Structure formats: C-alpha cells, structure tokens
Amino acid sequence: MVVPRAILPFHLEGRPVRGRLVRLGGLADSLIARHELSEDVSRLLGESLALTAGLAAALKFRGSFSLQAKGDGPVPMLLTDCTDAGEIRGYARSEGTPMGSAGALLGKGYLAFTCDQGPEMDRYQGIVGIEGETLAEMTDAYFRTSEQLQAFVRLACRRTPEGWRATALILERVAAEGGIDGLGNEEADDAWHTATTLAATVTEAEMLDDALAPEQLLHRLFHLEGLLVDRPRALSYGCRCSRARLAGVLQGFPESDLDEMAEHGQITMTCEFCNLAFRFDRAEVKGAAGRA
C-alpha cells in the first residue's frame, strides 16, 4: 500500500521555522490492524509510526531511521522504522491488554533514535531516558537534551469509521536569516513562539480528518505566517522480511534446536512486524551441525 502525499514538508518564509505534516491515511490501518493489540497500545504504535516518518523525512540519508523504546512497563518494546525510500513498519510487544498513557505503558526505560546507513557508515544514535506521559513529550525531551534543538511535536492516532488513522505535526526551529541561531534574538523568538502557538490550536479531529487536505490544514494554521509548502513525499508499507532471509536464520540453529521448534514436521516463524507466518518443512532445513 502506498500513500503518495503522506508527508508534506513546509517552512515559514523569513522565519526560523520548518516542519512536516505526516498523515498515514489508510496505511495506518494496514500497519496497526494486523497486530492484536489493545486500543491504547495500538494508538501508541500509530503515533510512533507517524513520528518516525516525520523525523526521517528531515534527514538526508540512505538506509533506515528507527525509533525504539524499551521500558519495564506492560509494553516493554516499541519499534518503528522508516527507510529513505519511505518504507515504514513497526510493532509493539505487549503483555495482556494494557491501558493508559504512553508513559504508563512503557514505564521506566529509554528512548533511542537511530540512523543506520549500513555497515560501511557510522551509525548515529541518540538515547534519552523515558520522560513524560505522552510520546510527544518524550520526543521533546530528546530534542532538548540530545539535539539541543527547539521543536514542537503534536501526535494523533485513533480508530475512525474508516479504520485507524495516525498523524504527526512537527515543527523545528532552524537558523534564522543571516545565520543567527535564534538564541537571544527577540524577533526570531517571537516568530517561533507565534508558530508554535498556532500549531497548538490544531485539533485531533482536524489531524485525522481524511476529507481535510494536508495543504488546507496547514493553510488554516499558518496562512498569515508566510507558509511555503514543499514537494510531498510518499510512504508505503515496507516490511523487509522474506522467506529466504528467515531460512538463513534457521540455518544458524543447531539441529537439536530445530527439532524442538518443529511441530508435526514443520517449523513456523512469524515476523513481528507484519505478523505473517512462514512455514518450513523440518526435513528441508539443515542446521548448523548439518552443514559442511
């Protein structure tokens, strides 16, 4: 599934503000509904998917950008990633049917933002402790401590009559004209304050309304602030699992472990991202001890 205009980058002319509006549309339902998760965990997963896509869109890279949360709460693992081509996937590991805010679901732990460009390039990673009750608050803490960057993040995700929908609105403060970073610059401070105040007026209903075009939503918020919309970017469902890759994983296990995995002569492996099950005949899988 492909959403051609899922990410709409924009900036405010003459002001130290750039941003992205991410609307996953039907892609959110395709990604979330395949997992058996509680309502609140599904909402957290959807917010993470939209946020990851929005953060990845601000980078120039080849590879994947991921958001990973590990905590001691009923959702001990949350992982979403997006490639430079806009292929997105994610999963949340939960215990039971937990309810509550993102902070309650994740508990104490850390949040990691990672840009992986392959084995020949250094991997960039920023890690912060989980701080705040919402994923947006946790991301703000990351920007403040790791990136030393002012940012505004608003996330929305819920099940609508059309299925799950997820949206992210991200604003970042950039260098003002002339190379001034804005710290101590009263005019730039005022411009940033105005932009974030306007962004804070957006409602969840507006963010998740399929009938409200992204350009129209941004126009409502920033039409008096020199809004300039850039070229939209597509997002698509992008699980990178394959039968060949999983077969290679199985071949790394000893024969005795493969025997324990087999049921009625078959080994079943399920991808955590897409929740698809791959079945292999035990007789056809050669373990580590069985290879030359």
TrEMBL record:
GO terms for cellular component: cytoplasm. GO terms for molecular function: protein folding chaperone; unfolded protein binding. The keyword Disulfide bond applies. It comes from the Bacteria. GO terms for biological process: protein refolding. Keywords: Chaperone, Cytoplasm, Disulfide bond, Redox-active center, Zinc. PANTHER family: 33 KDA CHAPERONIN (PTHR30111). This is Hsp33 family molecular chaperone HslO. It comes from Roseomonas indoligenes.
